[in-house]
Amino acid sequence: QVQLAESGGGLVQAGGSLRLSCAASGSIFRLNPMGWYRQVPGKQRELVATISSIGSTNYANSVKGRFIISRDNAKNTVYLQMNSLKPEDTAVYYCNGRAGSIVYWGQGTQVTVSS
Fold first, then answer.
1. Which residue, 111, 13, 34, 15, is CA-closest to 76?
2. What is the 3-state secondary structure (H, E, C) of 12-59?
3. How do the pLDDT tens digits run along the chain, 115 residues long?
4. How far apart are CA 105 and CA 31, in angstroms?
5. How far lies 104's CA from each of 1, 15, 47, 97, in Å?
6. Distances from the Cα of 10 to the Cαs of 76, 82, 87, 88, 98, in angstroms?
7. How far apart are CA 8 and CA 77, in angstroms?
8. Phi and psi of 89, rounded to 5°?
9. Nearest 10 degrees: CA dihedral of 58, 68, 94, 90?
10. In sequence order, which residues have a C-beta less than 8 Å from that of residue 72 and are 6 or more positions away?
């Protein structure tokens, strides 16, 4: 059983930056891929970025060039560096990790970008 805990959310002005962290209770080495998703009220949860166990990354078009996902297997942590934030990035951000057919989710962290 792996538990994921997000941190680093908050309120930031448009154009600012935040770094989200996702700390796992166990080893993340076997979680492949890991990712960040986000959700706003009334809408489906959407993919933001994923990273494989060997570091291959994938981004939603809306965040390409602005967000960077990374993972530190030694620290059992995944990060999401968010730059040039826009009001439309406002959402609850969730960390996700897959181990075979099992998918783990964190409880989410709120990111609010003011205009």
1. 34
2. EECCCCEEEEEEECCCCCCCCCEEEEEECCCCCCEEEEEECCCCCEEE
3. 889 999 999 999 999 999 999 999 877 778 889 999 999 999 999 999 999 988 999 999 999 999 999 999 889 899 999 999 999 999 999 999 999 899 999 999 999 999 9
4. 12
5. 9, 31, 15, 5
6. 22, 12, 13, 15, 26
7. 13
8. -85, -5
9. -110
10. 78, 79
Buried b (16+ CB within 10 A) or exposed e, 29-68: eebbbbbbbbeeeeeeeeebbbbeeeeeeebeeebeeebb
- Looking at residue 91, what is its pLDDT? 98
**C-alpha 86 chain-centroid distance:** 16
Q: Under a CB-based contact definition with an 8 Å cutoff, are residues 65 and 57 in contact?
A: no
